[in-house]
Amino acid sequence: MIRRRMFLVLSLALALAAGVSCTSGQVPSGIDVEGEVPPGNGVTEPPDGGAAPVDSAGLPADSGGAVPPDSAGGPAGDGGAVPPDSSGSLPSDSSGVPPDSSGVPKGGFGEGVVALLFCDPLPYATTTAVIGPNGGQLLVGDHVLTIPELALSDTVTITAEQMVGLVNSVRLSPEGLQFKVPAELTLSYKNCWNVDPAKRIAYTDERLRIIEPLASVDSSSSKRVKSPIDHFSRYAVAY
Q1: What is the pTM assigned to this prediction?
Q2: Is residue 103 part of a domain?
Q3: What pLDDT, in 10s, does the model give residues 70-91?
Q4: Looking at the domain assignment, is residue 49 inside a domain?
């Protein structure tokens, strides 16, 4: 009987001890006191609506932001102005009228490419001669017009004028007269300023605008330049 009572007392004591342990405030491991699940328990935390991740370029992924600039500093594919070439220049077809084979701008007067030679003014002079198929020579001042044989099919009255001005210029008429064989015009520049470039004869209009520089032979020792011509007009010394 005594042993039985001792067993009951011991059982009661163990039961009381277990109850005290459950009410002591200790919480089984795996449960957070704030109601949060500790990491590593297999539950994924939902996103908090913060900033979206960025890609390697520093722009938000799928953000639809501005396209980064290309190497030229402008937006890639923006279709903007054509950049200059490596020389800093615009493309060649944006310049002025291209020159012809002689180096003179087409439709231009040759400024900067061929220029008329400045001279001390000469007095006006004129000479007239009748020249036919046998050819002949005409002198006006220090200038000479030589017409070869068979250059003319008929007899023609030809006038050569030495014009007054700051360039050595002659007018040959009748204007537009053409030759079957080129005539030769020799112009003097003894009264002209000394310049290094070779001299040449230029076909001009009445305002002394250069229409065409001619293939010429310059004799610096005699200060004369000569050139073949195929028609009558106005001609001047150029360089």
Answers
A1: 0.54
A2: no
A3: 444 444 444 333 343 333 332 3
A4: no
Comparing 170 with 72, the larger pLDDT belongs to 170
Pair of tokens at residue 70: 């290309």
Asked whether residue 217 is domain-assigned, the answer is yes
Range of the domain at 163: 125-234
Using one digit for the tens of pLDDT, what is the confidence trace for 111-133? 446 899 999 999 999 999 999 99
CATH assignment at residue 196? 2.60.220.30
Task: Give the total number of structural domains in the chain.
Answer: 1
- Within its chain, how far is the Cα of 156 from the centroid? 53
Residue 193 lies in a domain: yes
